Amino acid sequence: MNLDEALTKLKEAGYKHTNKRTMILEFFSKEGRYKTAKDLLAYMEPYYEGISFDTIYRNLHLFHELGILESTELDGEKHYQMRCANHHHHHFICRNCGATRRIQACPMNFVGEDLTGYAIEGHKFEVYGLCPACQVA
């Protein structure tokens, strides 16, 4: 999802375009990788003195609920990134820098056979490790 699509989705859901919301979405649009609420707060503090974690988390939750951001948990902390393409895929996620790489293979192609008679409602598959750049560093 790009910035314009995210802003359109926000507006269509009946939410206002505020400068803070636009800046949050710009942050994730530019980053192109998983980032934490702490990363976002550090980015926004120079522009919005006294901005709170409550404001950050409230907007992250809203964007996640609207399908603008996707999330994962790394080392006990939630990380967010702009939602990827609308087609089915999975990710390799670098535990150090949050970079992602799309994985086309889906384990459900094999697991489904073991669950005959079950109503599968969804799944999530992520592989964690270090990207090539972080292995060198």
TrEMBL record:
Positions of Fe cation binding: 88, 123
Gene3D superfamilies: 3.30.1490.190, Winged helix-like DNA-binding domain superfamily/Winged helix DNA-binding domain (1.10.10.10)
Cofactor details (free text): Binds 1 Mn(2+) or Fe(2+) ion per subunit.
Cofactor(s) essential for the protein: Mn(2+); Fe(2+); Zn(2+)
Positions with a binding annotation for Zn(2+): 94, 97, 131, 134
Coiled-coil region list: none
Protein's recorded name: Transcriptional repressor
Source organism per UniProt: Halolactibacillus alkaliphilus
